[in-house]
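Summary of Year 1 activities. Much of the first year was spent building the evaluation harness for sequence design. The harness presents a backbone, in tokenized form, and records the residue chosen at every position. We chose the following record to illustrate the format because it has been used consistently in internal testing since the harness was completed.
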């Protein structure tokens, strides 16, 4: 696992405060992200984890201001190098997006344009944001493809997305994201659609580029193996809220929230026999189209639930240095802090 101490002493690059992103549909209002706060330091990798539907990707898209209708950021701040992105005019956000902060997605074929060559698509960002000529941008594109370990880059720039393998397309997406030397890279399930061997290569590439370029990375994933390999700190989300945050070593050694404990218990280990059944979290993520019951959102699935959990929603309680959990099991720590 990574050492969490160095990154947390670095200056804060991104600070998200009480972010709320709701979707206004004919079936009702969906609080996809409901009061989320976290920060990312320069050069750090922060993992945001949880099951599908917990709000990870909507959080990432909110930071990039890429929420499409009927979604809307309805509250909170997104401070990037001290500037509130929520209040930023669209033309300024457009200039920032792709130059100072970039994002790579789970499926490159939905992000790459099938009618333009790889070279044209990467060059476009350099021409728009770096004001390069077409010739200079193409030379830089070849360098970027070489940097992400794509063989024969002079040949690849003339090829189209369908001519490349899945792993190679993801490397192209990384090259495109890094074209303008951003400070922050958001990777949204960037390796999920790849086979295990290619996934390992892409993760190794991201680690290499993070170190060489001094990138901060927000890693959106449901794979705790990836978290252990890549992150310094972890944010665990459940139904639009953060339920635990800690440095990666602490989270794996001493998880506090029952949801985090259940996620970790469901991972097979080297000691797990082929006959042994893996732990399963009972039930499913609540439907946000319906009104959520009072109390803790995880209560219906929690093995440690008690009466208060069903009556009042717990706050995020500070438990130890850098670790907090949204759980009434730690009410004593909350009272101690208040006194």
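For this record, the design step produced the sequence shown next.
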């Amino acid at each position: 696992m990574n050492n969490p101490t160095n990154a947390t002493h670095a200056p804060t690059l991104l600070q998200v405060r009480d972010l709320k992103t709701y979707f206004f549909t004919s079936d009702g209002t969906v609080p996809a992200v409901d009061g989320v706060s976290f920060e990312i330091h320069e050069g750090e990798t922060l993992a945001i984890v949880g099951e599908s539907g917990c709000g990870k990707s909507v959080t990432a898209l909110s930071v990039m201001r890429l929420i499409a209708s009927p979604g809307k950021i309805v509250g909170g701040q997104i401070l990037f190098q001290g500037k509130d992105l929520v209040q930023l005019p669209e033309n300024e956000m457009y200039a920032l997006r792709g130059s100072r902060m970039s994002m790579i997605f789970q499926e490159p074929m939905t992000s790459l344009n099938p009618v333009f060559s790889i070279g044209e698509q990467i060059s476009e960002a350099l021409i728009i944001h770096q004001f390069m000529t077409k010739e200079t941008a193409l030379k830089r594109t070849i360098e970027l493809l070489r940097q992400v370990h794509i063989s024969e880059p002079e040949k690849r720039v003339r090829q189209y997305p369908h001519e490349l393998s899945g792993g190679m397309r993801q490397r192209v997406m990384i090259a495109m994201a890094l074209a303008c030397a951003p400070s922050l890279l958001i990777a949204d399930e960037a390796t999920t659609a790849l086979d295990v061997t290619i996934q390992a290569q892409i993760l190794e590439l991201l680690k290499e580029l993070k170190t060489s370029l001094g990138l901060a990375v927000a890693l959106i994933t449901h794979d705790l193996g990836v978290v252990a390999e890549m992150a310094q700190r972890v944010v665990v989300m459940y139904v639009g809220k953060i339920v635990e945050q800690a440095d990666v070593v602490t989270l794996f050694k001493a998880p506090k929230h029952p949801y985090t404990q259940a996620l970790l218990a469901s991972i097979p280990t080297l000691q797990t026999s082929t006959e042994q059944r893996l732990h399963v979290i009972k039930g499913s993520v609540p439907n946000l189209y319906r009104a959520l019951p009072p109390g803790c959102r995880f209560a219906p699935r929690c093995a440690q639930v008690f009466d208060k959990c069903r009556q009042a929603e717990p706050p995020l309680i500070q438990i130890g240095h850098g670790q907090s959990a949204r759980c009434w099991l730690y009410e004593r720590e909350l009272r101690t802090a208040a006194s």
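The longest helix spans residues 196-213. Quantitative recovery figures across the full test set are reported in Table 2.
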